[in-house]
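Co-fold these.
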Amino acid sequence: MSLIATEHPRGFQEILSDPEASRSQSPSPRARMPSFLSLPDSVDATSILSRLRVAFLGVGAVGRNACVHLARLGVKALWICDRSQYKAESQLTQPIDPDEIGLPKATAVGSLAKRLSPTTRVYVYDGAFESLGAMAFADADIVLLATDNIRAELECGQHCLHLGVPLVQASVHGGTLTAQIRFRGHAASGSCCTSCGLTRQEKIALTSEVRFSCDGSTARTTTRPTQSTSHLCAIAGDMAVNQVLRYALGLGKSVVDQEVEWNGFSLQTRITRLERKPQCTADHTVWRRCYTEGPVADCTLRDVARAAGMHDDGRLERAAFRVGETCYVQRGECREWHGQAVERFIGIGESAGSCSRCGDTLQPGPFFTHHTAPSQLIVTQLDRPIRELCTEPPDWVLVSVNGEAVLFRTASARGPMKRRPGRCSLGT
Amino acid sequence: MFIRNLSSSDPQPPGDGLSGLEGVPLPFVLERHLEAAVAGAGGSPEWRHRKSAEAHDILALSRLAPNRIRVDQLDLSENLRVVINMRAPVPTRRHGSDELVIATEVLFGLQYRREALLTPQPGASFVQILAPSGIFLPQVPANPPSCLCLAPVLPPGIRCKELLLLTYYALTMQTFQIDVGDPHGVFNGEAASWWQENAKRIPLTREPFLQRRSAPKEDGS
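Predicted complex below.
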C-alpha cells in the first residue's frame, strides 16, 4: 500500500490513506470494545476515544507498541515525532519487519497506524522535537513520551507543563526487568514535571550527550540505545496505553500524578505518588489559554495584555511578551562593526535587516536577543499590530507577569475539540 | 542602571572561596542597586529568587575584586542581564593589521536565560564582547557578533560567578583552544594558527581572578 504525505504546519506531514485502501472496509473499534467496569452504560467508550488526540515523542521499542494500540482503538488524531531510523538492532527490541530497516521511525509507525485506522488523522515528523517549537503538541489531549533523549524529554515536558497537557512517560530498565509509567497531569503549577523526576545520573548524562553547532542553533544528542528485551518494552507500551485509557474514560481511581512500576522478578506492581520537587529548576507556570476571533497578529501587544488582565495597576510595566517562535532583537551589527537598532521580533533563520551605512546584513547579538521581551524594552511598539513587528505573522502570543501567563492563539489554529487546561473534557 | 562600586574597603575573599560569596555583605550603594534591580525583576518567584542570588554573587565578586571587575548595568526584568567592565589583558587586532595590541580592559554583556537552569547550553550563548572590537582570540569570531565561547557545552544550572571566572580565564588565555583540528572547533581559525605560532606568549597573565593578600605575620612584616 502506498501512502501519501501532505505538508502540515509546524513541520508535521499528514499521512493520507491510499484511496484504494480506504475503499476496503475497516472495522469499527466498537466491534470489540468491552463494557468497562465502573463505566456507566450511557457513556460510549468508542465515541470518547474517537475524539481523543494523542501525541508521541519517540516511537521506538516502547512507543511503537503504544501507538499501534491507540490506532486500533480508533483515536481521532496521532502526532508522531521521532528523529531516528530503524537499524538492524531495532529488530531485537521492537516488532518490526526486516524490510523496515533504514526507514524513519515516525513515518513507518504513522503509516502503520493509518493502515490500521484510516479514520485517524496521522501526522508525522522525522526530525528532532526541539526544532518543532512550543506549540508542536498544543492540540493534543495527551502526550506519550517514550524517548531515551533526556534533553528532548525535558523540553517536551516543559512545553506540556506550560500548555497544561498531561504527559505519560513510559520507560524500562532492562537489567532489573522493570517497566515504569509516570503520568503527569500538569493541572497546576504545583504539579510535578519531567525535571522533578530527573535523577542525578540523568542530569550528568544530559550534559555529556549534547553537542552544539558553533552558532549554538542546533544540538546533536547522542543517546545510548535501549538495553532491554522486546517483551519488557512491549509491557511498558501496554501499561502506558492502559493509563491513557483509564484517564480518557475515567476508569477507576485517578491515574494523574502517579508512577506505576512493574517488576519482572517479583511480578509485583508498585504505585507511587508523584510530587513536585521544591528545588526543581523548571518553570512550573501553567499557561491560561485563550483564542482570538481574528488572527492574533492583528492585535497589538497592549490588546493582548489588556485581554489577559495584565494591563492595569502597574502590571503592564512588569509584563513580558513572547511572540510565536521569534526572538526580540534589540540590536545587531554588520561585518564592519556598525551597531544599529533592530527592534523587531525575528524568527530562526530570518534576516535582522541591513545596515543603514553599508547595506551589509545585520547579525543579532546574543546579549541583545530576548526570547521573552520585557514591556519596558518595547514600550514604543505596544500599540502597533503584532504583524508589523515581525517578518512572518505569528499564530500565538504569550503575555506573562510574575509567574502568571496567558497564551493567545488564532482561533483557526484551534482544533475541533479542546480540553480545559488541567481537566479532561473527554468524559461525560 | 549604572552601578559604581564605591566601596572604599577592600575585603578578603571568603575563607571557603567562591562558595562563600552569598555571605559577603555588600556596601550600601551596591545593596541599594541590588534592591532596585530585584524590585524590577520579573518571572516566577523561584526564578526571581535565583536571579537575585546570582546578582548578589556578581556584585559580591565586584566588591572582592574591585580592581578586576566593575558592574556597569544590572537588569533582572526577564533574563539576568549584566554589563561588566573587566580589567584584564585582552589581545586585539585591528581589521587589516597584523599588529597585536593588548587591551587592558574589556566590556562585555552576560545574559543568563531561564533555560540555562534546565538544559545544557552552548558555550557561546552567555557572553558577548561589547568593546573593544577586533578581539583576536580563537574563541571569538572575527566578525560580529563577538560571542565568547567558554566551552563546547555548559552544564545546566551553571552559576554566574563560574561564567565570570571562565570569561576571565578565556580572555587572558589561561584557558585556551588553539587546535583548528579539534572536533570542538574554534571560531577564529586565523587567530588559532597565529597563537599556535606564538604559543610562548600564552597566557597573557598568570594573575588569578581573585588575589588573596597574605596574612600579616606575627612580627608585623
